[in-house]
Input
Amino acid sequence: MMDIRLFLMAVCLAVSGCATYRTPGAGVALGTLAKSAAGLADHHPAAPLPAQLALIRVEAAGYGSSRNRCDGTGRYCVVTLHDVETPDDLRRLQQLPGIAGLVSPDRDRLPQRLDNLQDLQQAASGLGADILLLYSLDTRFSIDGKELAPQSGVAPGFLPSRQSRITTTASALLIDVHNGYLYGDAQSTSWQDQNAAAWSSHAAIERARVKTETSAFQSLLVEIGRLWREAVAGRDPQ
Output
C-alpha cells in the first residue's frame, strides 16, 4: 500500500493550490568549456595588470530558481542578480593582487545568443573587462538518497520522517578576455543534510538552498584566490 505521506505529496503536486517549491535548474559543466579552451594553453597572458575582472554566472538554458532568473538564449544563460554573492565576497575579489575593479553584466548588455566560450568572452569584452571569472552553481536536491531532477516540485511539510540533502557544486574558470588564455579552473562542493521535516515551508527550503549555495561559493572564492595569485606571481604591472 502506498505510504499516505507520498500519496498526499503526489496530490499536492497535482493541484495548483499547494505551495510547491520548485528546485533550481541545472548548472553548467565548466570542465567541458575548459576543454574547448585547452588548445589555447600555450598562449601567454595578454591582460594588463592591474586588470578589470568581469564576474559572469552562467547556468544551463532554462535555468530558474525561486528568487532568481536567467537571461539570454542558446545553450547557456546568465544570472545577472547576485543572490548568494555577498558584499564581503565581492570585496575579497576586489582586493586580490592585480585587480583594478569588478564589473558584471546586466540583461541589456548580453549577446543575443550564448552557445560557446567565445560568446561569453564577448560579453566580458563588452564590459571593458580584461579577465573573465566565469562560474556556475549546480544545486541538487535528494530525498532518502534519491536525487530529484532539476526543476522538480517539492511539497513542503509532507516528508517528516525522510532524510533530505541539498548539494551545490560551484565551479569556475579564469579566462583572459584578450586572447582566450585559460589561467585555470576551480571547484568546490558544499552540502546540507536535514530531516525533511525541516522543509516545513517554501521559505524554509529556500533558506536551506541559499545557505548551501553561499557556502559553496565562498569555498570557491578561496580556490579562485589561490589560482589567481599563482597566475600573477612574478608578473609586473603594465
